[in-house]
Design a protein that fits this description.
By secondary structure, the chain is of the alpha/beta class. It is 43% helix and 13% strand. It is globular. The structure holds adenosine-5'-triphosphate and magnesium ion.
Length: 334
């Protein structure tokens, strides 16, 4: 009997709301309820009776930022300085982590969020502006959902922000301090970032990331600049990604490779992945030197892999005046 009830419920859940797994919370033959975080399914009767699937009542959930990249390396001094800025209070409530694209602002902000989460029992409220094309509404709604409120029906942005501020104030009173992180503030999304700022109760520290130094200044933020990784951290990152043995086999070439990409984390990631692929090839040797050479001659295809667009590289801009592919060492051909 119980099996039949469960089958009816799981079919209903699949039909009505997509694949759901639920826990049987009232296992009675005549009356069964299955509940998961989003939906409740209910059967009343002897297993042939009707099933209703409805939205489960919202419950508060933890507010956490996404995890940082698993290979996150270094940045200790920056993380400590940011922690000090956030806990400073008063004039340092708004902190901006500023730096060029690919330098590691998002990764560092996520690492920070992970490290400080314990100090903010009210939660770490994360806003990924590019993900929502700069629209603050989905962010505000997701923050409200964490506070067990569905504000999907609220059309007015100012009302939405006011309501979220009320919810976050109650959350802070009940649970303790909150932290807010807004990732990738750009000039065109400035109003969105300001709306998110207004949705925070007074006194909640806000860290934003931006490429735009002028914008960070204009916002009156305490600006914290992120620049390239120091050579030792760049080397550690390459070793983590490509394997210590690969890098240690050619230490001079590794240093040249890292210097050629300006110790930029994004480029080191590409290089690390490429080295992994090259090291798998039978008879692979001097792969780090080959890759360093490819970077020095701006051979994009050799650096990024066969799918890369060589056309993106300026032809003839290299010292020899050849197309990039002509500089590729023999081991990369074919
Ligand atoms: N310290 C680090 N350790 C390991 N990987 C890193 C580190 N910093 C950045 N990365 C990696 O480098 C890439 C670029 O970093 P990230 O996306 O954080 O840059 P960004 O400064 O936010 O760039 P953008 O301005 O384009 O948003 C990411 O794939 C990230 O995982
Ligand atoms: Mg970013």
């Amino acid at each position: 009997m119980l099996d039949r009830v469960l089958t009816v419920i799981s079919r209903a859940l699949r039909r009505g709301r997509g694949e759901q797994r639920g826990e049987l919370v009232a296992p009675k033959a005549q009356h069964a309820v299955v509940q998961d975080s989003q939906y409740v399914a209910q059967v009343i009767g002897d297993g042939t009776a009707s099933v209703t699937v409805q939205q489960a009542p919202l419950t508060p959930t933890p507010a956490v930022a996404p995890a940082p990249p698993p290979h996150f390396t270094g940045r200790r001094a920056h993380l400590d300085a940011l922690k000090a800025a956030l806990s400073g209070g008063g004039a340092t409530l708004l902190t901006a982590l500023q730096g060029m694209g690919g330098i590691g602002k998002t990764a560092t902000a996520l690492k920070l969020a992970q490290e400080v989460a314990g100090a903010y029992p009210g939660g770490v409220f994360w806003a990924d502006l590019p993900r929502h094309a700069g629209d603050p509404r989905p962010v505000l709604r997701s923050w409200a959902r964490c506070c067990a409120h569905d504000l999907a029906a609220e059309p007015d942005l100012n009302v939405l922000a006011d309501q979220v501020r009320g919810l976050l104030t109650a959350r802070r009173d009940a649970r303790g301090p909150l932290l807010a992180l807004v990732d990738d503030v750009r000039e065109k999304w400035l109003a969105a970032a300001q709306t998110l700022g207004r949705a925070l109760p007074p006194g909640v520290p806000l860290l934003l990331t931006t490429r735009d130094a002028r914008l960070a200044d204009a916002l009156g933020a305490q600006v914290h600049n992120l620049d390239a990784l120091p050579p030792d951290e760049a080397l550690a990152l390459l070793q983590t990604l490509a394997g210590a043995a690969v890098v240690e086999a050619e230490p001079g070439a590794a240093a040249r490779l890292l210097a050629s990409v300006g110790h930029l984390p994004l480029a080191i990631e590409l290089a690390g992945r490429r080295l992994v692929a090259l090291a798998r090839k039978p008879g692979a040797q001097a792969i780090v030197a080959g890759l360093a050479q490819a970077v020095a001659t701006r051979a994009v295809a050799a650096f990024c892999g066969p799918g890369a667009r060589v056309g993106a590289v300026e032809r003839g801009a290299d010292p020899g005046g050849h197309a990039p592919g002509h500089h590729r060492p023999a081991r990369y051909r074919g």
